[in-house]
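Weekly modeling sync, notes
Attendees: S.R. (lead), two postdocs, one rotation student

Agenda item 3: backlog of single-chain predictions. S.R. asked that every request posted to the team notebook include the full sequence so nobody has to chase files. The rotation student volunteered to paste the first one in as an example of the format we agreed on. Action items at the bottom.

Example entry:
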Amino acid sequence: MKKKLIIVSAFLVAFGIQFGLYSVVFGAGEGLKNPLGENATLQTFISKLLDIVVRVGSIAAVLYLVYVGYLFVSAQGDTKKIEEARHAFLYTVIGITILLGAKIISLMICNTVQATMPDPSKFTCPIF
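Predicted structure, as returned to the notebook:
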């Protein structure tokens, strides 16, 4: 059951991202265009990619929290099922921590690089 849920959710995320990016990159008869804009840099690409990952991961985290709540309710006092639900909750919290930690670390690196630049006005960090 768990493997099927993970496979289905991974498929839906990959499928949705694929078609979402396809519609952005390939406009209606306009040919191939840069989805990040005219003056896109590697910094903006990584920032926007991380924003997408955080948004999709946040939605997945909420869904997994609901699933963990269902596991707790359906356990009905069975210690083995409660232990499974606790592990699922722990892994969900670890995933949320990693998700938010990635964004925080990227902002820390960006601010550090900006502080070491001779002209910090040329290097801007994206805001959360």
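Discussion: group reviewed the output briefly. Helices lie at 2-25, 42-75, 79-116.
Action items: rotation student to repeat for the remaining queue; S.R. to check formatting next week.
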